[in-house]
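user: Kindly work through both lines:
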Amino acid sequence: MAVYTLVLEYDGATYLSQVESSDEQSALHAWCEELDVCTIDGFPLTDSDALLSGLADLSPAVAGHLTNVWTVRFAVGHDVAVLHLIKTDLSRSE
């Protein structure tokens, strides 16, 4: 299992979280399962279950020429949200 850091950019704000998962697709699914949409300003509460369920089925795309970084763009009403998934090494070098 690896740790994935997820960076959500939505409506001018940035939201960070981490999940443990075996790959980026499973990380996206775990994030959708764990996400509390009430913590995201302006996120529609009425259709959030359907939105997250559809989002969990998307395939994260490799972000440019980066290693261990993926991106998913999705519509939230008339807005666009961008979610970055980053496979994260938790060890610290000092």
In short: The first strand starts at residue 2 and ends at 10. The first helix runs from residue 24 to 34. DSSP finds two helices and five strands in the chain. Strands lie at 2-10, 13-21, 61-62, 69-76, 79-88.
